[in-house]
C-alpha cells in the first residue's frame, strides 16, 4: 500500500514541474531591441547615452552622444550597425565597447538594437 501513495506523489511532482515549465515557456517573450539596449547585462546603452523622450530611459548620461535623430546621423543603417559592432574601428580611443567583436551581443541582438536605435 505504501507504493501507491509514493507513486502518486511522484506523478504529482512530475506533473507540477511539466506544467510550470510549459507556463514559463509561454510567459517568456522575445527580447526587443529596446529590452537589449536597456539591459545592464547586455547593451546597457543608458550607461553612456541619454534617450530624450523615452519614459523608460530615466537616466541622463553624457559619456556618449544622445541617441536622437539617428536616421539623420546615420543615413546608411549599415554604418550604425558597424559602429555598434565595433566602434574602435572608427575611433580606437572610444569608450564604447565593441559589442560584436567581443561577443557581448550576438549578431541577432545587434540587429535588434540597431533597429531600435535607428528608429530614435
UniProtKB/TrEMBL annotation:
Which UniProt key words apply to this protein? Heme, Iron, Metal-binding, Signal
Domain (Cytochrome c): residue spans on this chain = 28-120
**Family annotation (NCBIfam families):** thiosulf_SoxX (TIGR04485)
The UniProt entry's coiled-coil ranges are none
- Name of this chain's protein: Sulfur oxidation c-type cytochrome SoxX
Q: Does the keyword Translocase apply?
A: no
Read off the SUPFAM superfamilies from this record.
Answer: Cytochrome c
Q: Where is the signal peptide?
A: 1-24
Organism the protein comes from: Thiobacter aerophilum
- Domain of life the protein comes from: Bacteria
List the InterPro entries. Answer: Cyt_c-like_dom, Cyt_c-like_dom_sf, Thiosulf_SoxX
